[in-house]
Amino acid sequence: MDRPGPAVSPLRAPATRRDFLKWLAVSAAGAVIPGLRGGPLFAGEAAPRPPDLVGVKEGAPAQMFDAGIRALGGMGRFVKRGQTVLVKPNIGWSKTPNEGATTNPELVGTIVESAYRAGARKVFVFDHPVNSEKECYESSGIRKIVLEKKGEMRSGSDKSMYRKVEVKGGRLLKEVLVHELYLDSDVVINVPILKSHGGGRMTAALKNLMGVVWDRGEWHRRGLHQAIAEFPLVRKPDLNVIDAYLVMMENGPRGHSTEDLSLKKMQLLSPDAVLADTAAAKVLDMDPADVPYLKLAADLGIGSMDLDKSLVKRIVLKQR
Asked: How far apart are CA 232 and CA 235, in angstroms?
């Protein structure tokens, strides 16, 4: 059972793109904004279908996840008893949590814990880092908290753990070496940190999947945006949780200084990686149309960029 979370605003407003963008623009200075559709928000109100996207702000990472996953229908919607779960954060760089380059460890630990509460048999965590795997796992704080929550850290740097699979429908990608945990786990929960990126324009849900393939360099050489868009044809994550607590607005993916960072205190949750990334682009003050892989992925049927036609719920945790 998911633990109870902070109170949210009981008011509702139409789930329009304009309202959503207005919400994203509000500062993190304690404002409580009315929620979009997605309740039930009043006693006795019939529950509608789960929202396509949930945006949460103004809380600690664990609080925001608890509120967001509850709004999506609970972790039990995604994880069934006895299943194996892969939690895939961004641990690509040997950076500490306050440098905004890797997924917040509190969030990762909370997701591992939540998956076990939903009945998971085993929860695995890994990434294929750019820097030394040992240094990345340690400096990020992720290895420590995963082990505390009884999860299992696996290597992403062992080529023997990758299998060649066909990319059905891929125009650029025909075959790719993919980590066995991404292929074999019953459930994949994709947990990127949001940040700017030179070649990819931004790192969020879709680009985070580069950490489950062996040869990222091939994607850069052959066509990064097309490759990012086509890879989910192999398999789409079951749930995407974008960490937008501390966001690297410029000079990603590693960053140069604290001046590149902005404390947003946000989280975006959705089964649809394209929809989540479309909203995430706005958090980075980008037009989603300027991130080429988003439209490419939408055209392949990976997900939707249409916030207007999506059921969106926003939650602003009240200041205590």
From this structure: 5
Confidence of residue 216 (pLDDT cuts 50, 70, 90): confident
Identify which of 304, 235, 261, 298 has the alpha carbon closest to the alpha carbon of residue 53.
304
- Which residue's structure tokens are 């779960």? 85
10: pLDDT strictly greater than 50:
no
Q: Is the CATH number of domain 51-316 3.40.50.11440?
A: yes
302 SS3 class: coil
Instruction: Please check whether residue 61 is in contact with residue 106, taking contact to mean a CB–CB distance below 8 angstroms.
Output: yes
Residue 319 burial by Cβ neighbours in a 10 Å radius (0-12, 13-18, 19+)? exposed
User: What 3-state class would DSSP assign to 254?
Assistant: coil
Closest CA to 110 of 83, 70, 80: 70
Q: Check whether 129 has a pLDDT greater than 50.
A: yes
Specify the pTM: 0.86
